[in-house]
Specification:
mainly alpha; 0% strand
Length: 234
Amino acid sequence: MNPARRTLDPRAKLYLLLVANLMLFFHVGLATQIVMVVLFLLPLLAAARWRTALNFGVTYAVLTALGMLDPDALGLPWLHVVSALAVGVTMMLPCFITGAYTFTTTSASAFICAMRRMRVPEAVVIPCVVVIRFFPTIAEDYRQIRNAMALRGIASGGWGLVRHPAQSLEYILIPLLMNATNVAQDLSVAALTKGLGREGEHTSRTLIRMTVVDWLVMIVVTLPLALDIAGGVI
């Protein structure tokens, strides 16, 4: 199988992201949420994003367990805050899962092609492309800053940021924020230089096509949400 086809069509990925946001909007039940999270993790596994899927799965399981705690029965009233935070993050986690899958497995060219197939205005396409390029660039800047800090013995190690919050703020957060504006501007100029803002019909060398698997995945993830909404209405 072609490695490029181990992931869904970009339009199917955007549909998964839409369904995840609808879950948050309709506040689905716990059983439906668990089923949907499992379904959202399967495309990550199919795309060989094993570590990402495992991290999301473990995080969801831990947060779900924390959200089901009974602080009053345990005699720990302060657990109400932890439980409430866990429930809130759990509700948003499907959006994080589908967002991570969509933006880590979709190239900018495939995303542009999909948006144009859906007749999305260029005023929307260009900012979306900038966003796709923005976060990987910022992540690379962060890794370079961390490597430079470790080389100088500043807040080195996994817990260095926690042990030295002031240094972390000075040497990591401030440079990243200062560089973020320049990165966004450079990416916008690069996108316009490549002709993304040109009027008229655009062509693309990237080929995308909705397959039976794409349609099947869209139907499967829609069913639990539709059944939960219908059960809530009846």
